[in-house]
Amino acid sequence: MIKISILSSYNGSGFDALYEACKSGVLNAKIVLVISNNTNANVLKNAQKRNISNFVINQKKFPNTNIDEKITNLVLKYESDFIFLSGYMKKIDKILLKAFPNKIINSHPSLLPKFGGKGMYGRFVHEAVVKAKEKQTGASIHFVNENYDEGKYILQKSINIKEDESVDLVENKVKKLEIQAIVEAFIKLIN
Fold first, then answer.
1. Are strands 82-85 and 153-160 parallel, antiparallel or unpaired?
2. CA 143 to chain centre
3. Do 182 and 14 meet the contact criterion of CB atoms below 8 Å apart?
4. What is the DSSP letter of 135?
5. Are 5 and 80 within 8 A, CB to CB?
6. What is the pLDDT of residue 41?
7. Is the pTM of this model over 0.85?
8. DSSP notation for 39-67
9. What is the average per-residue pLDDT within 17-39?
């Protein structure tokens, strides 16, 4: 069975989607580990409720420690096949990329390469899309490399945007689409 580790900074809605897909048998996989850099992240509570090993790893908790090395060692210890970034707000270090080449997956709420890069996450992406009067947006699931949002695409899904749609509406539509895209991407990778 494929083992997946999750790195998340906040709620981890992608984690929830993958967990449900694993539990229902849509994915022949299991989430074995959740790591957050945020002590108060809801993703940790959700992992605890589901009896999934979870850890907070950040500079505050482990001063004078190479955090990226600590994360890499933990993911290796849990024998993970893939790592999914579910709203993880730290750049992935070379040590983790080297240990898991083409095995670290990210979800981005736009049709990359548009509206990607440093500082382009969450609501900032949707605000930029609406401001640019784009006719389409969507979700991109991609491998992680050393640059923000530049890894090879696994899949992209798109939706049309009407001229009068608010940022909130676009954000909600993309969030639903992103959940579907994450599961579809893992089906493509695993099955």
1. unpaired
2. 10
3. yes
4. S
5. yes
6. 96
7. yes
8. TT-HHHHHHHHTT-EEEE--TTTSTTS-H
9. 97
Q: pLDDT tens digits for 61-89?
A: 999 999 999 999 999 999 999 999 999 99
Query: Dihedrals φ, ψ of 77, to 5°?
Result: -60, -40
Tokens, residue 164 = 């009068």
* SS3 (DSSP) at 87: coil
Q: Quote the CA–CA distance of 21 and 130 in Å, as a whole number.
A: 31
Q: Across residues 165-175, what is the average pLDDT?
A: 97
**Which residues are part of the catalytic machinery?**
108
Domain 2-101 falls under CATH 3.40.50.170: yes
Helix, strand, coil shares of the chain, percent, nearest 5, are 35, 25, 40
Relative to beta strand 82-85, strand 53-56 is: unpaired
Our separate counts of H helices and E strands in the chain read: 6, 7
Residue 10's pLDDT band, with cuts at 50, 70 and 90, is: very high
Question: What whole-number distance in Å separates Cα of residue 41 and Cα of residue 153?
Answer: 28
Locate tokens 């989430």: which residue?
Answer: 31
C-alpha separations of 186 from 14, 132, 136 in Å: 11, 31, 24
